[in-house]
Amino acid sequence: MKDIPGKFNSVRLYTMVDEATSYERDAPVKPNPAIKAAMDTNTKMLLGIWCSNTNDIAVELKALEAALVWGPKFADLVVGISVGHEDIYRYISEGPKSGKTLDDILEFVDKVRKAIKGTVLEKKPVGHSEPWVVFANINSSFVDKLDFIGANIMPFYDEETEKIGMAKQFDKALAGAREKSRGKPVWITETGWPITGESKNGNKASVANACDFWQEIGCRRLFNKVNVWWYNLHDSNHGSVNRYAISKNLTTEPVFDLACRKEVPKKDEPKKDEPSGVWTVSPSKSSHRVVVITLTIPDNETPSPTS
């Protein structure tokens, strides 16, 4: 894509399952076709296990097992496995029909680890992704069971963003996530700003603001420094009120100028004693099952699996 900075070389998958798969007992299971597409283009992957709206992840594990037939060629491109996505947030805000408890997620994490034991994925880190405020308010024993924390960072939804600016809100959230990480790597599993849609807490969805967010957060804080999956190349979730994109209809033509500017306005500069890294909170968007997200991943922060 024209003028894109850094090395964008990975995608995030929210499910292992082909969306055409039947969830009937004993039905054949096919893996997410995005996996093969990633392999064909030598693209790294953060795999996902969808955990909400189900009492079991057996179908997800069957799809994971089916993908293992690709062997080392597949495994070498896997960055890690996120077991669930904002499930605890949905449980708190919407109830058990929409989300999962901490114990549910830990049970699923254990099942994933057992499923990959003795396979080419055995040494891959296993984690979970949530808005950072969820990690900030749960028992530390939950974090201890993860290899990495996936922080979904969306200052657009935060009440304080209009008052203090997107960058300061982002830095504040990063500090909160790292404080509760217990030394585990914090990966940014979602971040971005909507280009269209409704305003939220005084924050306006617009191409101009999305461009500013790209410059302030992406260029100044993230690219080539932190494992980050940017939301989104082009939003395909038709249920969303706010739409995210950096590409015009999945073409190589960007929605806004992606080149990092040498000079950035100083009004949103973080204080010198604040962290220079990045992640923040986001109330959940609608539950997307199969979404591929662009990301940039430096060759660092590879955690050792928790035994």
From TrEMBL:
Swiss-Prot/TrEMBL GO biological process terms: cell wall organization
Keywords, ordered alphabetically: Hydrolase
Localization terms from the record: Cell envelope
Biased composition (Basic and acidic residues): 264-275
SUPFAM superfamilies: (Trans)glycosidases
GO molecular function, one term: glucan endo-1,3-beta-D-glucosidase activity
Segments traversing the membrane: none
Record family assignment: Belongs to the glycosyl hydrolase 17 family.
Main location (coarse class): other
Region named Disordered: 264-283
Highest taxon of source: Eukaryota
InterPro entries in the cross-refs: Beta-glucan_modifiers (IPR050732), GH (IPR017853)
One term under GO cellular component: fungal-type cell wall
Name of the protein: Glucan 1,3-beta-glucosidase
